[in-house]
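Reopening this one. Same input as before:
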Amino acid sequence: MAANENKISLKLMVHKEKLKVAFAEADYTFVDTLFSIMTWPMATIVRVLDKCPDQNLQALGSLKNLYQSLEELPASYFSNEDSKFMMLNPTTSAYDLCRNLKLNIDDSEPTKCFICQNSNCSENRGIYFSNSSVARCPSCSKLMNREIHSTNSVSRIFDDPGMFVPSLTTFIVTDDLRVMPNTLYSSVRLLCDLGITDASQLEERTFDIGREQMVILVKAALLCKNPLTFMVFHSIRFSGGLVNPKMGTSIQISTSNEEDTKLKKMTLRVSWQKSTSKFLFAEANEDFVDFIFGFLEIPLGTLVGKLMNGNTSIECLNNLFSSISNMSVGDSIKSQELKGMLIQPQLVLKYVSENQIFPLNVPNSFEYTLPGWRKRTLRDPRVNGRFLKAATKYILTDDLVITPLSSISGISMLNKLKVPLNDVEQHEVRIGIEKGLKILKASLRSSSTFTDALLEEIIESKKNDGVQEGVILLKSN
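Same output, byte for byte:
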């Protein structure tokens, strides 16, 4: 995209001796791009960060493995031909708006629309369209591979070039991604809070940012306490800058007002090494795997705000979300609608799995009016509300590699790990929204997702209830 070739500039206040960014002074071009990340589904974040030039930094815990597992899962395990495509390519209502950013680092392809190749069906009986060219027409079962051009997105004409924030407003952006309106007093207080009282320790610099630098910043925001400094001086490995991606096992999450007891529970059979309490693998039916693949469709703003209540394991994301939430409409955010796009992003499509127990914002209607065509309904890529075929079983590793269940490959895995077969016990865990949130939170940072999310509770349950034939049924909170 031509927009990705643009450069934007930041004015930096840098500590000369420590080579550390105290804060940046930014206009709407940088802040719009930074804020737009909140509208991305997690699948988009995985794809964008996978193209980061610095592959020594591994961000997003286990979600990259989850995305790759979905990509590599054979087509025979999906309910429909287009199920995988829809799961891998979720979008939010802000997608088309963000394509107009001066620096748009989301290089996802625009959504396409296809109708039945049978012209008689399309023009007379067919009322469906699909976003995938491999879907089958519900009316005649032929391929829906006839592309039609759509302008479903709301056409926005602004008298101001800013997308989310006014173009004449400037902002202070701290090293840990707190964003605030630019005032002299707030910059002085910020420097004092950093322990800097002598202005001669500082120097002003200008830093030009293109797509590559912005991707590095996003990736560093998931790993560092000071992503601005890392973006500017990323060749320097500074002490204490990188956050250890290994999380502790104690995870505190608020389920807000959701009543876990009213929601569907899924079963996860977790196998541990008895002698070491080490996670080995988990076995699950398609309902749990359908649910966990659904992590990829969750927009970042929904994840940080609605699901985690602004308390993820990643400080910079918490700061960014809090900054947007606290900004006043009119002065700092252009409208309440645009603010909602950032902190309560809405998925474009209503078709989510019935196994998605997290509350996501989806449209009320399945129907769309395509230009030059009558109103049409998006073809449902699910069968009985699911993306994966029923009665299938899977094996999951601690870092969210998911493959179809095979006893032979499982035993080979134990052999590779040098675990005696009589040193294995299985615990049956009922997964509701609270445990689901623990797994989601751990997957953001950890390469040992199930260990961090479930181990402490399983150990505590063993102490209280004892072991009966190696199987424990945990009560879901």
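So the earlier flakiness isn't reproducible anymore. For the record, The longest strand covers residues 8-15.
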